[in-house]
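FORM 7B: Structural annotation worksheet

SECTION A. Query
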Amino acid sequence: MYNASTNPALGVFIYRNAVGTGNLALFNLQLQWNYSALGLVFNDVAQLQVFAIEMVYVPQGVSTWGPAELRADPSPTAPGFQGPPFQGIAAEDAITVGTGAGNLWVTTPPVGCSYATVPTGTLAAAFPKGYAAFLHEV
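SECTION B. Predicted structure
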């Protein structure tokens, strides 16, 4: 959020008024700027820079983790969740990481780790898992 002393940057988010695809053409776009909030007066000269970041909105929905070719693997060692069938993430609830059935686990530990050193525990509910809607920079 804007704060003259700690965050003097300003921004604007421009988006479609309906679901759509393709280029977005805007004509006669006008923005109002409360420059007096920055201590500027009408005759002051200010240098402005405009940067565009293309964003997409990803709606809420089930996300799946792991390689696509293994998502249907019924074996209990399929990457992702232990036990058949491979499960998707259907909520932003906490997820248990461990070797038990229904837990998130790996079948090939990261480089430099053994199964004994792969961390277990919980992915907190606050950790983003791809289920809740979010914005993503393209």
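SECTION C. Observations
The mean pLDDT is 76. The CA atoms of residues 26 and 52 lie 13 Å apart.

SECTION D. Sign-off
Analyst initials: ____
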